[in-house]
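Fold it.
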Amino acid sequence: MIGEGVRAALAAGAILALGSETVFAQPFNVERPLVIIVGASGGAPMTRIDGARRGLARTPLPSSGLHTEWRTALGFTAQQGPLVDSNGRTYVVGENGEVISLGRDGAVLSLVASRALRPGPPTLLSDDTLVFVDSVGDAVAVRDGAVAWRSRFGRASEAPGAPLALDEGGVVVSSGPDLAVMNADGRETSRIALPEPTSHPLLVALGRVVIVGNTGTVWTWTPGTGRAERDGSFGSDIDGSAALADAHTLVAITATHTRVSTFDLIHGLETKVAGPAGGLWLGPPTVAARGGFYAMQSTPAGDVAVAIDSSGTQRGHALLAGPSRGRSPDSGGLPTEDVSSTPPVTDADGHLAFATRNGSIGVVSGLGALASSGVDMGAQNAQNAQNATVELVADACSPMPSQAHSRPAVVGLAPLAPGELVAVCRSGLVVAVKGRSPAGDSGPSRL
């Protein structure tokens, strides 16, 4: 159940920022819906776009006519996806702590050797300072082509979580069970230690930091207080990241790829939304602008994108790529290897950008239009699958020979500009893919 700390935070109207988005701290009536305008500048300042981790782009993605605009070789291998600031600069962190920034045309603007050990996912602060946590528990900040500060705050972790940027210019960082708030100069201002470690991205909801532990336990914390509140549990670890489906509901892939689950932060309740249905679910889910979400599934036929509405009804599906993993007859043709995938992103018009395991990049359009009440959903789903269109740029990233059958060739996607997205290849190649899209910006998002 929600603790007294959450009620206090709600009463005060405390709102944590979603990276470089504009967020208005304001009193509000908790009995009425809340609408927050969160800016229209585009970019992707955090893993999964923003602090809600929805994978929802604020600028239109390409919908057709896909082609490669530019490619830039980094000179190092990458494990983390790209970030994009409001000016269209792309940032990539290498597995040995290299931090590179690229201009809108793919030209290298800066390269910093931070000497960090196995860095986790990065975050951009409001002044475009890039912050990440490395495997020894250091928070590292890079700004203006140099290391701005480095601060040891946590215990060592092989998988530090993605930091959460704050409105005043600071950041919440995590490593293992340790969380801390750093100000813009790298000075620690608040900290807690959880009863368990977390490797998942930190989220923001209901004016608090939301943490999903490695057992699936959901914790919330108001920075400045001495401890986190246990709100409940998903019942198992989650795959990749949870996403904020609405103001107080998380959605995640749980139970070793066999369930899509939601968690209500107010009531502390986990709900099964979807089961196996012939395949394994791949996280994290991507939240649609008009409600509902998309989830990827690995099936005997190949990887499939599934549109699911807020009630858990599957509204459509589209086959994205044929089988590319080892299959076992004893498992019904399901993959027997690592089933990790590249998290997709979507836009306000429902275009879903994705990457196949072998390195092709594509967009599926027309997936999962909502049906009116009384419509036969079997027929509607068949129609949605028929109407969905998939377009690919083949082999945009080539798999690394040593990982050709184990890990996706693309480590991450992000919106770059209207009608354009950027991808980071595990091999160290950055690729910009462009296509046709509605002209101009998609306008402000609403939470």
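The chain has one domain: 4-19+45-436.
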